[in-house]
Amino acid sequence: MSTTRPYSPGDRGPEPSGASGTPAPGPPAEGASSGGSGEGAAPARGRQFRRLGFEDQSGVVPLARDFTRQALYAWGWLPAATADHRAAAEDVLLVVSELVTNACLHAEGPQELRIACDNKVLRIEVADRGAGQPAPRTPHRAGRPGGHGMFIVQRLCLDWGVVRVPGVSGKTVWAELGAPA
Question: Distance between CA atoms of 28 and 51, rounded to whole angstroms?
């Protein structure tokens, strides 16, 4: 998949909601959602969006997973009705873990996690302070410890890439997964 394209195929760039890497005017508060929330909420209708800031936080990987799990419950992905739905939710949690871990290991830590969902695609974005370019390690050696994060992201996602804003340090690494049918 793509590591050079800042947006997925057919995407015309950042959305006004800020879900595609560009902060929206007046961003919602940490953990806020522009869509439905709370346990037992109906499945997502239209665009749902949540963001989590990591400033002065410790244990950011489990924090990101818990935040994402709460969103998946609110958006009707969990509790999973079928094995396919459960696998889709687990894939989302794994991709969040990998992207946040990579920001911790290679990019001076994550700044923010953004997740957006409509009825077809869930988009994960992790903004960080790093200048590096994430890429799957090639050749991939399954038996070698470490270095599997972007390979996993590439295998599980419909597409992924990096957004950089000229003149601003850091980047946003994004990945998109298909919503369960």
Answer: 8
pLDDT tens, 12-52? 344 433 333 333 333 333 444 434 333 333 444 688 999 99
Closest to 126 in 3D by CA, of 86, 99, 88, 146: 99
Q: How many CB atoms lie within 10 A of CB 80?
A: 16
pTM: 0.75
Question: Which residue type is seen at 168?
Answer: V
HEC sequence for the chain:
CCCCCCCCCCCCCCCCCCCCCCCCCCCCCCCCECCCCCCCCCCCCCCEEEEEECCCCCCHHHHHHHHHHHHHHHCCCCCCCCHHHHHHHHHHHHHHHHHHHHHHHHCCCEEEEEEEECCCEEEEEEEECCCCCCCCCCCCCCCCCCCCHHHHHHHHCCEEEEECCCCCCCEEEEEEEECCC
